[in-house]
Amino acid sequence: MSSFGYITAPRLSACGQLYQGDIFTAAPFLVPTAEGTTRTEAFPAVLLTPTCDFALKSGGDIRHLYAIEVFKPDSPLLQRFSQGPIPQHLLPLPPVAPMLPHGGAVHFRKSSPVHKTQLESKEGIVARHATLNEAGLRALLMAHTRYYLRLVLDPSQIPIPPDDPRLLWHAIDAVDAIKGYDGRRDALMVALTVAINALARHYGIAAPGPAPVGVHLYRLAVLSQQHARLPAELQGIDLEAIQTLVTMEYGLRDVYGHPPQDKRTLEPQFQAWLKDLEIVSLAVQARNAPQIPEQVYRNLSQRA
Amino acid sequence: MLGLNKATLSRHASHGDIAFQPVGFGRGKAIPPEEVLRLGSIYRRVPLPDLRHNLASFVAERAHANVETVGHSLEELTVNEEAGGQGGTAAMRRGAGTARVPEWMLEFERLSTSSSAQGDAYTFVDGQEYEDHRYAGSYREDTGDLTLHDLGLDPAVLVAG
User: Fold this and answer.
1) What ipTM describes this predicted complex?
2) Would an 8 Å CB–CB cutoff place B158 in contact with chain A?
3) Which chain A residues have a beta carbon less than 8 Å from that of B27?
4) What pTM was computed for the model?
5) Are A185 and A174 in contact (CB under 8 A)?
C-alpha cells in the first residue's frame, strides 16, 4: 500500500464529484450555541459518511463533515502523536501545503451536517483543497470505524467502490514507480483493468458479482457503438474515454503478443497510455453520470 | 463438465467436429453452451440434468443472467435437440436457422466472439472484487495501541517543533 497522502488538482477535478476524504479549507460548520440556536462557522473539515458505511451516499441532500485541527509547530497533539498511541477520537493528517504545513488531525467528536449545495455548486466544489489518496482514505475509514465500534479493521481490506478514482490513481502511480519493461507492462495492464471496471461502474453497466473485466469492456464498447440508439437522457457518456480504453486494450494485447526486439521503444507508448488513463480518471469523476439500466443495455446488445 | 478428456475434445475440435472459438493466443478453445449440451447428449458421461445445472451456473455467472432462466432455456434446447435429431455442428445448425435464441445466449456468444472480451482480456481478471458497503476482512478489538505506522503514516512527517 502507498503511504498516506493527498490528491490535488489537476488530477482532482474541481467540477467533479464529492468523495469521502475530501479536505476543505473553510467548510460551513454548524456550531450549537448556549441559547439553543446554531450558527455557521467556516472551519477546515473533511467529508465523511455519518455512518459506518464505507461508501459516501450520493442520495439525499445532507453531507457530513468532521473538523480538522490545523497544527502549529507547538501543537500539543503533534507532540502526543510523535510519542505514543493515537487516541480513538483522532486521525493524524500528514502535512499538505499550504493548508496543513505541519499536519493536522481529524476530530471525530466534532462533526456537522451540511446541505450539499453548500459544498458543490454548478461551478465546482467549494473550497476543496485536496482529497485523501487511497492509503489516506483507508486510514480515515479505519479510524472512523475504530471511533464508533472500538474495532480495528485491516485497512487494506476496506472495500472502496470500483469507480472511486483513487484506485485508478494508485494503479497509475504503481506503473510510474516501476522501472523494468515487463513490470511496467504488467502494471499498465492492472491499471487498465482498474480503469475499465471504474468506467463500467460509473455508467452502471458493471455487474455487481465477479465478472471478467473483458465483459465490462465489451459492455462499454456496445454502449459506444450503439450510442446513437441510447435515449437522449442517457447519451451523456464519455465516448472518448471508452474508445481510449478499447484502443489501449488492443494495444496492450499486441505488446504481449508481439514484444519488440528493443523493448525501450515502447516507453513513449507506455507514457501515452498513462496520460490516457489520467483522462479516464477525470471521466469517472463526472457528476450525474447517466446510469444505463440493464434492459436498455440488453436492447442495445441485441442490435449490436 | 462433460466428463470427457480435454485431449478428446481437442482432437474432435481439430477435425472440425466441434464448434468452438479460439481464445488467448490460440492456447484455449471456448465451446458454446449449446455445443456442450450436444456433446453431453452424445457421450452421456454426465446425466443431462446435472450437465444442464452445471452449465447453467457457469453461463449465468458470465452472462449476468438468472441461473434459473438459463437452466430453463437449456432444458428447452435439450428437448429441441432430442426432437429435432442430430447431424452437423451447432454452428451449422445455427446457420440453418434456430427457432428462438435466448437473450443470455446472444450475449454469451457475442462475448466469446468479441475481440475486446476475448483472449487476454480474461487473463487479467481482477481477482479482488469489491462490494461497496460490506467489510469482509479481519478485525481485532481496539486496545488503544494504534500507532502512526498502523495508519500508513511515517512518524517523520509529523514532527513537533
Assistant:
1) 0.81
2) yes
3) none
4) 0.73
5) no
